[in-house]
């Protein structure tokens, strides 16, 4: 397997088994040989397909993204105090880079959109919920990121073996139900998930 057009997948990734349950290894290998912009479009298409009302057309994808941009603009307009100054923005970038140096993302997690787990400090400290007396998010030192089947688990609910995870090729934080093998999207980011879980607005 090889990549072309100076693709960032260099060296190519070798899988002993498919990282996405239900998708043949040959399909995964083929997708990874496609140019980066094609893979990105494909990933966006799959992400859009999870939104209610998606019909598979480029027009719908554009509308969904336009709605998301409008939501962000409206939120910034309603809460200007939450906007960062240039100095604060540069400070946060420096802090993220320093955090990534302390707990870098393992190379075997390529394809998992888990940058916030490493850049925002969760990989270093995790998050212990005092109410439930459990690690909602575990530090990287307590995890085994190379033992996965289409998902990278970073925490658990403490009941029924339900795990909180990143899914291969998907954005957001998901709940994985081992009894049924199903996934449920919980939040768009790890920070939003932790906040929702600890406040009780997110549950499984």
Helix content: 25-40%
Structural class: alpha+beta
Query: Helix and strand succession?
Result: HHHHHHEEEEEEH
Annotation field: number of helices:
7
Proportion of beta-strand residues: 5-15%
- Spans with pLDDT under 50 lasting ≥5 residues? 1-11
The first-to-last residue Cα distance is 39 Å
Main pleated sheet: 4 strands, antiparallel
Order of neighbouring strands in the sheet with most strands: 3-4-5-6
Query: What general form does the structure show?
Result: globular
Q: What would the average pLDDT be, to the nearest integer?
A: 78
Q: What is the count of β-strands? A: 6
Structural Rg:
18 Å
Descriptive notes:
It is a single chain. The longest helix is centred in the middle third of the chain and has 21 residues, at 58-78. This protein is of the alpha+beta class and 204 residues long. The strands form 2 sheets. It has a 4-stranded antiparallel beta sheet. The protein has a two-stranded antiparallel ribbon with strand order 1-2. Helices cover 39% and strands 14% of the residues. It contains 7 helices and 6 strands; from the N terminus they run ααααααββββββα. The radius of gyration is 18 Å and the shape is globular. The chain has helices at residues 25-33, 36-48, 58-78, 86-102, 115-119, 122-125, 190-199; strands at 127-129, 134-137, 151-156, 163-167, 173-177, 182-187.
């Amino acid at each position: 397997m090889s990549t072309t057009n100076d693709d960032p997948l260099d060296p190519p990734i070798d899988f002993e088994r498919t990282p996405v349950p239900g998708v043949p290894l040959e399909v995964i290998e083929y997708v990874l040989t496609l140019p980066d912009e094609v893979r990105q479009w494909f990933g966006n298409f799959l992400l859009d397909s999870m939104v209610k009302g998606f019909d598979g057309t480029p027009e719908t994808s554009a509308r969904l993204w336009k709605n998301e941009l409008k939501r962000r603009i409206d939120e910034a307009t309603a809460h200007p105090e939450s906007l960062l100054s240039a100095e604060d923005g540069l400070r946060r970038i420096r802090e993220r880079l320093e955090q990534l140096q302390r707990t870098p993302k393992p190379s075997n997690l390529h394809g998992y959109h888990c940058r916030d787990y490493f850049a925002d400090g969760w990989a270093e400290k995790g998050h212990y919920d005092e109410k439930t007396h459990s690690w909602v998010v575990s530090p990287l030192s307590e995890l085994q990121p190379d033992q996965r089947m289409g998902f990278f688990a970073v925490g658990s609910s403490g009941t029924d073996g339900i795990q909180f995870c990143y899914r291969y090729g998907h954005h957001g934080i998901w709940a994985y139900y081992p009894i049924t093998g199903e996934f449920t999207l919980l939040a768009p980011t790890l920070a939003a998930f932790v906040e929702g879980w600890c406040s009780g607005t997110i549950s499984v």
